[in-house]
Amino acid sequence: MQKLLGNLKRGLLFVLSAPAGSGKTTLTEMLVKEFPCVVESISFTTRQPRGKEVDGKHYFFISREEFQRKIIEGEFLEYAEIYGDYYGTSWKWVEEQRNQGKHVVPVIDTQGAAQVREKCLATFVFILPPSLEALRERLTKRKTESPEEIGKRLNWAKKEIEESKKYDYAIVNHDLETSYQVLKSIFIAEEHRRVKQEY
User: Fold this and answer.
1) Domain boundaries, the chain
2) Closest CA to 109 of 93, 92, 132, 85
3) What is the pLDDT along the chain (199 residues), one digit of tens a residue?
4) How confident is the model at residue 198, as a pLDDT?
5) How many other C-beta atoms lie within 10 A of the C-beta of residue 10?
6) How far apart are the C-alpha atoms of 171 and 179, rounded to whole Å?
7) CATH of 14-192, one of 3.40.50.1820, 3.40.50.300, 3.40.50.2030, 3.40.718.10
8) Are 45 and 59 in contact (CB under 8 A)?
9) Which of 19, 41, 97, 152 satisfies CB 3.0 to 4.6 Å to 102 for a cystine?
């Protein structure tokens, strides 16, 4: 029987980007929870673990030296330096998941998305905040960043929002549940667009 999602022998690649505080993490978690065929890509990073982060579940934590070696050996689908730390998506990990029929979702910034765009076929989705003021309020409520860090994130958000014009889809996250339904619809439509290639 055909399912809403999870009908392909080889999974697809969906790149999700958004400014910090736009809801991308929550939306991805909702997708992964509802659909076993969707996995969030686990990035390699040189930064230190925060709070209850677990190696191999939230990130693969490695040294700068090891990260540099992986860059030289071409192991990354994309990588970027963000606030002084490196983050990267492993080609091998992504391909292993896709070959099992899983749809892989790297939640990455626009720098990383630009690299993916040059290397392979993917569907690009950008989550927009209702406004920059709404984003400032969300970041302030989180109480995880200083006012200076919030200022930096907002400046970066303006640049990222400009880049969103290059994405296949944009979702303005006024309401989480509505945004989730739109995101889910994109995944379902993109998969069913590809079904004919495997039929």
Assistant:
1) 14-192
2) 85
3) 668 899 999 999 999 999 888 889 999 999 999 999 999 999 999 999 888 888 888 899 999 999 999 999 999 999 988 878 999 999 999 999 999 999 999 999 998 999 999 999 999 999 999 888 888 888 888 777 788 888 888 888 889 999 999 999 999 999 999 999 999 999 999 999 987 776 5
4) 66
5) 14
6) 7
7) 3.40.50.300
8) yes
9) 97
Whole-number Cα distances in Å, 120 to 30, 72, 78, 94, 193: 26, 19, 11, 12, 17
Q: What distance lies between CA 179 and its chain's CA centroid?
A: 15
Q: How far apart are CA 103 and CA 120, in angstroms?
A: 14
Model confidence pTM above 0.90: no
* CA-to-CA dists, residue 81 to 25, 43, 47, 69, 145, angstroms: 19, 12, 10, 15, 19
Nearest partner of 78 among 102, 122, 33, 111, judged by Cα? 111
- In the numeric block, which tokens belong to residue 53? 């982060």
Please enumerate in sequence order all residues whose Cβ is within 8 A of that of 176, keeping only pairs 6 or more positions apart, or say none: 23, 26, 27
Across the chain, how many H-helices and E-strands are there?
7, 9
